[in-house]
Amino acid sequence: MSELRDFFPVWNKLNKNQQEKLETTAVFKTYHEDEVVHNGTECSGFLIVKSGQLRAHISSEEGREITVYRLFERDTCMFSGSCMMSSLQFDITIEAEKKSEIWLIPPKVFRSLMDESTAVANFMNEIMATRLSDIMWLIEQVMWKSFDKRLAAFLVEESSIEEKSQLKITHERIANHLGTAREVVTRMLKYFQNEGMVKLTRGTIEITDLKALEVLGE
Fold first, then answer.
1. Burial of 160 (0-12, 13-18, 19+ CB in 10 A)
2. pLDDT by residue (tens digit) across 44-84?
3. Strand ranges inside the chain, DSSP E
4. Other CB atoms within 10 A of residue 82 CB
5. Confidence category of residue 172, pLDDT binned at 50, 70, 90
6. Dihedral angle computed from the Cα positions of residues 56, 57, 58 and 63, in that order, rounded to the nearest 10 degrees
7. In the 8-state DSSP scheme, what is residue 81?
């Protein structure tokens, strides 16, 4: 558990008692691909990613999903513990996209740290501003950007994350990321293939013209 000090951004601004409280109460967990880390109806606590990749998404009443943001090594998430902030109600689901290791700091513990430490309170405000910026960016993309541009930008991002041009991802999973129907994704990918930007095989999308996708996604 001593590694937590290397991942908690304002660790050195805490006093010894506060550091000990974090080390003794933080819960370390491992999640495998597609496992749910946080359900929107819960208050799991403040989340810190040690390793892996997670996806935060919201769902409509009809069950359609859209990715709000993703979490990587050293990222943190406050929405998994929204009960820590009485004025913030945000039902979000977090699931592991790859095997992931995380710490969860219990809500009461983190809430007390926010009350005791100006550094923690300021850190929390910074995270809130960043996440709200992510949400506003997403709204802007959905409202004003055509789907071909959104899909192109997603494929470019995936290629960068995976560091490869051959992506093992289903059309259904892409639809869940982008908040649309699988059929819409399939039609657009076939168009991309006809334009020579991708090559489609079962469960795999190979990017054949990354530059064209980058230009389209701008």
1. exposed
2. 788 999 999 999 998 877 778 889 889 999 999 887 666 66
3. 27-31, 36-38, 46-51, 54-59, 65-71, 76-77, 93-96, 100-105, 166-167, 198-201, 204-207
4. 21
5. very high
6. -140
7. G
Domain boundary residue among 80, 113, 143?
Answer: 143
Tokens 């541009």, residue located: 149
pTM for the complete prediction?
0.80
We report the CATH number of the domain holding residue 156 as 1.10.10.10
Instruction: Give the CATH number, domain containing residue 133.
Output: 2.60.120.10
* Residue finishing a domain among 108, 143, 178: 143
Domain that holds residue 183: 145-217
For residues 160 and 138, what is the distance between their CA atoms, to the nearest angstrom? Answer: 19
Bridge partners, 66 (sequence order): 58
Same domain? 70 vs 103: yes
With 0-12 / 13-18 / 19 or more C-beta atoms within 10 angstroms meaning exposed / middle / buried, residue 51 is middle
- Name the helix (H) or strand (E) containing 212: helix 210-217
d(CA 182, CA 170): 9
Single out the residue of 21, 20, 75 nearest to residue 47, CA to CA.
75
Instruction: Convert the pLDDT of each residue in 142-164 to its tens digit.
Output: 888 899 999 999 999 999 999 99
Q: Tokens for 207?
A: 């990017």
Q: Report whether 198 contacts 206 (CB < 8 A).
A: yes
